[in-house]
Fold these 2 entries.
Entry 1:
Amino acid sequence: DAGVTQSPTHLIKTRGQQVTLRCSPKSGHDTVSWYQQALGQGPQFIFQYYEEEERQRGNFPDRFSGHQFPNYSSELNVNALLLGDSALYLCASSQGQVLDNQPQHFGDGTRLSIL
Amino acid sequence: EDQVTQSPEALRLQEGESSSLNCSYTVSGLRGLFWYRQDPGKGPEFLFTLYSAGEEKEKERLKATLTKKESFLHITAPKPEDSATYLCAVLGETSGSRLTFGEGTQLTVNP
């Protein structure tokens, strides 16, 4: 049973560039959430996708956008990269939009470094 | 706004030396409190969900407990392989599906 998979594992970009990160949810899961984790910090919620729509958004600027495909996989796009965007980007999947009885399962993330 | 504070920031134990990690939270109506383990370079690995005060969950050397204001992760007779960062997260009534995490406790168990 494949868990949450993310690609690429590492990425180096320069300021002003754009980046796309990809996520395949755990088998049987239909909801994908994205988190940003700075070094030494806890993950911060970016947004959640369910039924191919953004359902909830955290305190992140419009430079951060996403997409969910019919097969439930998802992409995170970040435009006009800033040095402060350097972080581990985590994808989490769950079954159904409400988490009360289903914990989110995380992938191993994409380490994004901005030069 | 939901808030989570974890203490201590870092904890160093000798193998077999039991201890507890603390997670204090402020949330308007707790729907769930989650404990995760995170190894370096990896994503968080789910450990436990607690829903109401008084609830306890156990897994091997780990036991999680919950009160109305905080949760404890008790580690009994730890081994070096228990070394990791332990993260606590909450889900409140007004959170939707947004988990709010603490900054974690970095646990090191020396042989």
Entry 2:
Amino acid sequence: EAGVAQSPRYKIIEKRQSVAFWCNPISGHATLYWYQQILGQGPKLLIQFQNNGVVDDSQLPKDRFSAERLKGVDSTLKIQPAKLEDSAVYLCASSQGGTFQETQYFGPGTRLLVL
Amino acid sequence: AQSVAQPEDQVNVAEGNPLTVKCTYSVSGNPYLFWYVQYPNRGLQFLLKYITGDNLVKGSYGFEAEFNKSQTSFHLKKPSALVSDSALYFCAVRTDSSYKLIFGSGTRLLVRP
């Protein structure tokens, strides 16, 4: 079974530029998550989708971050404009989407450096 | 508010010795506890989870964890460490009130030959 796919793996941009990340979840997984992992910290949830609807985006900085999952499968996360403090690893995860006990499976992440 | 604490930034152990990586949690309600491992430039890999039942949970790569409700802990253990176990380990918790996983700050495990 293929895992969670993410691209690009690395991205370097100047501050105030925009950037987009792509995620394709495990086939059949209804729930998709985007996490931000700052160096030296644990991942922090940015947004959670159930199919193509948003379940939780309470920690998403909506003035600069946006995300969509239009067809309920793959998803994109965008930052516009980027700030220095956005330098982090952006992790996508997916789960089957049925219960609180289920496991989330993570992709390899996109490492973003904002200069 | 839900929280997870990993009190040790780094754990050092010799190959062949037992290892323990500590995790304590604070939640309202019943906890669902998870351990993940992260190798350099890789995403998080699921190791094991506690949902209910037997307090000793066995997972991947010979790891196990013990749930202790009275001490609100979920320590990760392995009877005999390998050099290849060297990585960053994260404990996480969730409850029935949210799908959100709350992660600890991580513990770096270094197994020396």
